[in-house]
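Q&A log
Question type: sequence-to-structure
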Amino acid sequence: MQQAVSLESSVLVLNKFFMALHVISAKRAFTLLCKHIAEVVSVDEGKYNSYNFESWRDVSSYKVSLGLTDDDTTSWVKTVSFSIEVPKIIRLLTYDKFPQSSLKFNRRNIFARDENKCQYCSKRFPVSELSFDHVIPRAHDGKTTWENVVCACTECNKRKGGRTPEQAGMKLTRIPVKPKHSPVLRLKLRFEKYESWKQFLDEAYWSVPLK
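Response status: OK
Response body:
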């Protein structure tokens, strides 16, 4: 179980010029490292160190020999022959495109924006127990946009049905808006584990607290 959780850990991806692009799973990051498409970027006391897959495995083995695997800010993956630390940041060696200026409207970003909270009862739920809700129902010409879609738990979604919140006697906890910055990144930056990401992100991602 822990192995599966570690493989789903978040890894920040940088382009060739050390500019943040997006966040991927550790499983995907290891695939890129094994193919030598990317390298690990480790931030140690303000200094950047780069490692390919083999040298990162050696560093991980050294940490294991010193018993440095119980740190709450790190995740580990065990194989038959060795254990390897999940990198927090990787850099694509030849990808020279710049980050997208527009924020994608998708399930992941909506849930991150709303912090996995139902926007009607204010309770936080696992992603598997949340769904999209159109504030103004599509049957009433409601659009699938940042300003009209929110997280809703199964119970509240069922209660609201195909009605507006007013018709259902329900109230939104906050008005939905399009985020100015990636909600996934801002949500991750709440945790000490991803402190090193700040080196590569504009201060706007983390200087304003989430509400």
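Response note: Residues 2-92 form one domain.
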